[in-house]
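re: ur question from earlier - yeah i can do the single chain one, its not a big deal. heres the input i used so u can compare w yours
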Amino acid sequence: MRKINPPVFYTASGLIFALVIISVFFTGPFEKGVNAVNDSINQYFGWFLIMSVSVFLVFSLYLLASKYGKIRLSPDDSKPKYSFISWLSMLFSAGMGIGLMFYGVAEPMLHYAKPPMGAGETVEAARTAMDFSFLHWGLHAWATYIVIGLAIAYFSYRKGYPISIRYVFYPIFGNRIYGWVGHTIDILAVLGTLLGASVSGVITLISTKIN
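and the output i got, formated as C-alpha cells:
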C-alpha cells in the first residue's frame, strides 16, 4: 500500500483548498490579484521565460549530439520494451496529440482575437498569434518536456530514487532533500502543476466563447 508524505500532502492540500475558497468567496479581489501578478510576471520576467526555453532547446540538442545521449535511463543491461517508433508514437499521442487537435486551431484564434499586446483581428495580431503558437507547440515546448522528463527518469530509473521532482536536486542539496528543502520542492511542483492545468482550462473556456 502506497504511503503519502504528510508534510507535502497536507501542506499542498491546504494551500489548494485555501486558493479554491478565496477564489469562490472573494472572486473580484482574487481575479484582480491574479491579473496583477500575471501582468508583473509578463512585464518583468517574460524575457526569462523565453531565454529559459531557448536554453532548454539548445541543451536538448547538445545531449542528442553528444556522448551523453547514449546514456541509458535504466541499468546498462536493460532492453527496450518497445521499438523506437512505438515510443515516439506514444510520446506524441500522450504528450501533444490531443492538445494539437484542439489548441492547434483554438490558440491562434484566441491570440488573434485578443492578443497579449496591440489590437485584435489585425495582420499584426495574426503574426503575434502564430509566434505564440509556435513557441507553445514547437520545438521549445518539446525541449521543456525533455529536460524535466530526462531528469526525473535518470534519477528514478538509473539511480533508483523514488519518482519525485525533489530527487533531481540531490546533486545540489544532498541529503537535505529528505527534509524541508525537499518538501518545499515537491509542494511547489504540485502547485505549479495544478495552476498550470487550471490556466489551460481557463484558456479553453475563453476560446470556446470567441465567435
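The mean pLDDT is 85. not sure if urs matches, ping me
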